[in-house]
Amino acid sequence: MELLGAPTGQRSLTRLSGDTWIRMLGVCPIPEVIRNTRAWAHEVSAGRREVAASAYAYLLKQYKYADNDPRLIGALLEAVHNYFSAT
């Protein structure tokens, strides 16, 4: 699974840490959508922990889909857990 919009030879998502992947707006084909979605989530939530808990629950659900890479999901879950723990 290669990054959308990434330069040729860019490492695949599964080889990147979850923390790195979460910050990769520079190669994202829709960075403004991601920024606006994040801003909205924080505006309507009770706090950063609620945002993290929602992301964690969504990621857990992704394990049931066969076309998702469980290593990527695990890396993202770890990143969300680290974010939660830092708040």
Q: What's the arrangement of secondary structure elements?
A:
Elements: H1 18-22, H2 31-44, H3 48-62, H4 70-85
Structure description:
By secondary structure, the chain is an all-alpha fold. It has one domain (13-85). Helix content is 57%, strand content 0%. The protein has helices at residues 18-22, 31-44, 48-62, 70-85. It is globular, with a radius of gyration of 13 Å. 9% of the residues are buried. The model is unreliable at 1-12 (pLDDT under 50).
Tally of helical segments: 4
Termini Cα gap: 31 Å
Q: Mind describing the biggest β-sheet?
A: none
Q: Helix coverage percent of residues?
A: 55-70%
* Global shape: globular
Round the Cα radius of gyration to an integer and report it.
13 Å
Order of helices and strands: HHHH
Low-confidence stretches: 1-12
Counted beta strands: 0
Mean of residue pLDDT values: 78
Write down the domain tally.
1
Q: Per DSSP, what share of the residues sits in E-state strands of 2 or more residues?
A: under 5%
* Computed structural class: mainly alpha
Please sum up the structure shown:
The chain has 87 residues and is mainly alpha-helical. Helices cover 57% and strands 0% of the residues.
Summarize this structure as a short list of keywords or feature phrases.
mainly alpha; globular; 87 residues; disordered N terminus
